[in-house]
């Protein structure tokens, strides 16, 4: 169903919140591909005050969905693209902020646990305790990635006291643990997110994702195993190459 849906004044949630939800629904349906309606058009469509419309539009501006200047009608914003380089030890935190977006994380889990499969990938005994950190990474007000990291507890225990809401893991690893990664290996695959992952990332079934697996090294010692699921509609992997050096493309096995 396209077009405006009626708002329910008997509901507990405010009208601006209902309006915001319906505008997001219409945006997801591609209804405003040609032009985004102005304030007065929305007032007429939904039968609400201009104040209600402005509050909903303010939220859309804050999350980077629409752009509106003083005296100008709102318009759809070009989506900010997060770019990551191949062949470099990068930080997603830095890449998000380089795109002009605020970076924050919702910490879902920070604990000590044992995981035999991950420990083996780190070259450790299966019973070795690991620090596990799971975050929902935000770019602006919109979800960007689900990030899961495992590190040996013997070296990463101080991270259990860190607030990861707005800080980079590698910065805290250096500050609190005295460890700086020097190299690593990364595999990137295109995947279809599960329903639960789509809910976390706030994407529909037509949006694919990148699954990134990283083994981080200090010298020849493995100190980090990471699995990151990134929205494919907001993320680009870039590579610089030359006729001499080139770059390698691998086939998934």
From TrEMBL:
This chain belongs to which protein, by name?
Answer: GntR family transcriptional regulator
Would I find Secreted among this entry's keywords? no
The protein's UniProt keywords, in alphabetical order, are:
DNA-binding, Transcription, Transcription regulation
- Claim: Transcription is one of the keywords in the record: yes
InterPro entries in UniProt = Bact_HTH_transcr_reg, Tscrpt_reg_HTH_GntR, UTRA
* Pfam families reported in the protein's UniProt record: GntR, UTRA
Q: Identify the species of origin.
A: Pseudonocardia oceani
Lineage of producing organism: Bacteria, Bacillati, Actinomycetota, Actinomycetes, Pseudonocardiales
Where the record annotates domain HTH gntR-type, the positions are: 13-79
Tell me the domain of life: Bacteria
């Amino acid at each position: 169903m396209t077009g405006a849906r009626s708002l329910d004044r008997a509901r507990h949630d405010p009208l601006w919140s209902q309006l915001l939800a319906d505008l997001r629904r219409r945006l997801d349906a591609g209804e405003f591909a040609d032009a985004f309606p102005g304030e007065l058009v929305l007032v007429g469509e939904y039968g609400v005050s201009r104040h209600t419309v402005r509050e909903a539009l303010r939220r859309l501006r804050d999350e980077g969905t629409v752009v509106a200047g003083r005296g100008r009608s709102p318009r759809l914003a070009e989506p900010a693209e997060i770019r990551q380089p191949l062949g470099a030890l990068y930080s997603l935190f830095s890449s998000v902020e380089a795109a002009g977006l605020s970076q924050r994380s919702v910490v879902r889990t920070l604990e000590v646990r044992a995981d035999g499969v991950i420990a083996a990938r780190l070259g450790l005994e299966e019973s070795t305790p690991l620090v596990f950190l799971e975050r929902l990474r935000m770019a602006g007000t919109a979800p960007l990635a689900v990030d899961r990291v495992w590190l040996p507890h013997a070296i990463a225990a101080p991270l259990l006291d860190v607030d990861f809401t707005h800080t980079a893991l590698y910065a805290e690893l250096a500050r609190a643990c005295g460890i700086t990664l020097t190299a690593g290996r990364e595999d990137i695959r295109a995947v279809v997110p599960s329903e639960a992952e789509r809910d976390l990332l706030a994407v529909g079934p037509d949006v694919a994702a990148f699954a990134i697996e990283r083994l981080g090294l200090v010298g020849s010692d493995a100190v980090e195993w990471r699995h990151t699921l990134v929205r494919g509609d907001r993320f680009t992997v870039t590579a610089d190459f030359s006729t001499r050096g080139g770059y390698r493309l691998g086939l998934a096995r």
